[in-house]
TrEMBL record:
Domain Acetyl-coenzyme A synthetase N-terminal: 12-66
Protein name (Swiss-Prot/TrEMBL): Propionyl-CoA synthetase
Protein's gene: prpE
Cross-referenced PANTHER family: ACYL-COA SYNTHETASE, ACYL-COA SYNTHETASE SHORT-CHAIN FAMILY MEMBER 3, MITOCHONDRIAL
The keyword Ligase is annotated on this UniProt entry: yes
Entry keywords, A to Z: Ligase
Every AMP-dependent synthetase/ligase domain range: 71-455
Amino acid sequence: MSLNDSPNGRKYSDEYQRSLGDPEGFWLEAAQAVEWVTEPTSAYSGVDAPLTRWFPDGELNTAWNALDRHVAAGRGDQLALIHDSAMVGTVTTYTYSELTAEVARFAGVLRAQGVGRGDRVVIYLPMIPEAAIAMLATARLGAIHSVVFGGFAANELAVRIRDAAPKAVVTTSGGLEPNRHVEYLPTVHEALATAGAPELPVIVKHRDGFATDPAALGWNHVDWDAALAVAQPAGPVTVKATDPLYILYTSGTTGTPKGVVRDNGGHAVALLWTMANLYDIHAGDVWWTASDVGWVVGHSYIVYGPLLAGATTVMYEGKPVGTPDAGAFWRVIEQHGVKALFTAPTALRAIRKMDPEAELLKAYDAGSLQTLFTAGERLDTATFHWASKVLGVPVVDHWWQTETGWGIVGNPRGLDPLPIKAGSPTLPMPGYDLRIVDGYGAPVGVGEEGNIVLGLPLPPGTLTTLWGDDQRYVDSYLSAFDGYYATGDSGYVDGDGYVYVMGRTDDVINVAGHRLSTGAIEQVVGKHPAVAECAVIGVADALKGQKAVGYVVLKSGVSIDPDALQKELVALVRKEIGPVADFKNATIVDALPKTRSGKILRKTMRQIADGDDYTVPSTIEDPSVIENLVPILSAR
Ligand code: COA
Ligand code: AMP
């Protein structure tokens, strides 16, 4: 298959049926879009079941497929990456030839630090081109990257460094947020000390306006630019399709993040399938994902997907509003001729709030835009209708998770586009055998809400395990429903098979498209000396989808000013988890509602706070606790 072949003419229903009826045939055919060093002879191997192994005898290099391949095909002069910084007002471009050369040289820098096949590299960078370069350079060496979002604090970085045990850390002197400069080096320093790894090589990309002398801190410090200037370019290292490409930590229900492991072969096959069939993006198209490389959306669709497809990817350092205004997205679309934009609904709500009639759009020609894709949280119908009206293009929601790495449910614009229904991300994508079941695993009826589960094996590109802990993978995802992966989301399917995703069944919340664990926030709040116990719940928020709100019970005999306590708790969460937790509200209460076995009734609390119908479980220990809480929760 050539990269420019349009898959149009194929129908979603045929593709979907074939993916489930003949997965070998379907995925081996899709695998032809990859250039392999050793072509796979089979698609799925159940040898390590329930762990998933795709293309077990295939060999490749992912970075080579994303870069050198396009140069070899004669498209070296085409733009690969456009970095648009609304923060500093610059645009920096890289052709495929330039990006390939830069990545090869940075791979040389990493190699000089001892990084080789299978080693880990932790990348803690904001939205600058070096983030993509560091990821691709790691992949070029057959090593494994783990990118940590810049909004996480030192402790979260330390937890990831400890778990991934990297050979090197790649970072910068600073990131730019609208209201402040983010100094990365003190955070990295603290994280290394906490992780007990002060000797680890730290490669630092210096940025203007930030502290420039980290060497004085006594680290094993390598200057990005100086090292790059003398580096010998490194060639691509062939790896097995089943070898890990990256680890991406995500929030679970406990305070310990889960290290989602992505393989090389299944990932490349799945992303290439999605670029052509789900997004209708092909070599030469300009594609923009307004997310961050620290999240899965950034991994799959700022870096790997568009580059594997030979498209031009736009990397945006800025916000949807305030940098400088709510017309920023429209400016980027016009300036770079963006064909499709992928963002989170919260970004659209932020724009709509500032500019309800989209007056600022009139100043730009957004005519290149053919489709707006959203994910990260449910696309609420008001935002769907608003975006559809102001942009006049299809607004396409799709549902997925860090674990799956690509859309579980979507509307394949490269096949026969399906009618869009507001509130639904449409139909399951190939390879996903989606069912709605009750708590015992029995199927529920049409229109009835239940747990969304996916039949095993999951398709290529989905997680292969959790880093260093196969058992935790099985316990977290595969144990609740025999033969199925539990998504942790609830929802229903309508009479046309359209899926509606309604929310999480666990303690994971989604704040401004960022996935957070209320359990992790509770652990931090619980450390405050005045706090006896606490419950953190995710309550509905008009802009950010949800926000984390804490209810705390004081230790007996302790008295503290509520405002002072709230300030201290907010500062504690910001220090321990990071600003991204966006934790701003903590209220003192007399008691928390619990079952007789001691489980805090967080779901009931959330329902009351959101003004939803609720039933108090019969197992409640003391009904008066909830009665006393109703006015407090309702007033939040
Ligand atoms: N480094 C350091 N701090 C960061 C950060 C980063 N990379 N990203 C966010 N933060 C900080 C913010 O500065 C803010 O700090 P503050 O409390 O001092 O103001 C805090 O974390 C909360 O950030 P956020 O929730 O992003 O709120 P915001 O008010 O800055 O912006 C939106 C709101 C909706 C504009 C913004 O969240 C957005 O664009 N969201 C899209 C999310 C997205 O793309 N998700 C990926 C899934 S597709
Ligand atoms: P993350 O792993 O950060 O991508 O978050 C995944 C979770 O975000 C999912 O389990 C859902 O709860 C939620 N989510 C992501 N996309 C959507 C969507 N399109 N509709 C509804 N929920 C979504």
